[in-house]
Design brief:
Blueprint: H1 3-16, E1 28-31, E2 37-39, H2 56-65, E3 71-77, E4 80-87, E5 92-98, H3 99-105
Antiparallel strand pairs: 1-2, 1-5, 3-4, 4-5
């Protein structure tokens, strides 16, 4: 599914009130500074509040719910979305990318 179609599906689901869990989810990874990617679930090593996080939006929501200031920048690319997340209080400065972008990086 292309990024354009996925975005339209999300918008339609939001407008129709369809719960996000019924929309197909992209697989997300953390982009490493040296290149390459690590599963977003690897954040669980930072503490129990990170267990079960599968999307950057879950991370953002969880950090805001805990009262942390979260800076977010979203970037659209030809290979999929990228979400830059910064939570100073938790020492998090991460770039979340989809599997498509990770595949492109590994070439």
């Amino acid at each position: 599914m292309t990024n354009f179609h996925f975005r339209n599906l999300l918008i339609a689901a939001f407008l129709l009130g369809v719960p996000p869990s019924s929309v197909p989810a992209a697989e997300w990874f953390l982009m490493a500074r040296e290149g390459g990617c690590a599963p977003l679930s690897s954040l669980a090593k930072k503490g129990p509040e990170f267990i079960g996080i599968q999307t950057p939006y879950q991370l953002i929501e969880r950090m805001r719910a805990a009262g942390h200031r979260v800076e977010v920048k979203e970037h659209a690319t030809a290979n999929g979305p990228m979400v830059q997340i910064h939570v100073a209080a938790k020492g998090i400065a991460a770039m979340a990318v989809t599997a498509e972008i990770c595949k492109e990086l590994s070439r």
